[in-house]
Amino acid sequence: MDKIETMRAFIAVAQEGTFTSAGRRLGLSTKLVSKYVQHLEGQLKTQLFNRTTRSVSLTDVGAAIWNIAGRSWSRSMIWIRLCVNVRAPWPARSG
After folding, report:
1. Using one digit for the tens of pLDDT, what is the confidence trace for 24-49?
2. What are the structural domains of the chain?
3. What is the pTM of this model?
4. What span, in angstroms and rounded, lies between the C-alpha atoms of 87 and 89?
């Protein structure tokens, strides 16, 4: 399973608060988002979210991962979007 997709799913659920909203944002089914998160939890051998029928919240481990990886990921995505949207060539460095 693709590691980037599993992280995208984890981050979207953490930000959106539900698997359904995360799936909508990512253009994926709720079931697939859940599968990605379960795969990540299996790899880490720990639960990342507390799940009830009405809510999703981060566990302590999930919150720690969010604080480290999620925020870095978000900053990276902003940087990538900025770079992709640049229309002019990079300025030459003066010697």
Report:
1. 999 999 999 999 999 999 999 999 99
2. 3-83 (1.10.10.10)
3. 0.75
4. 7
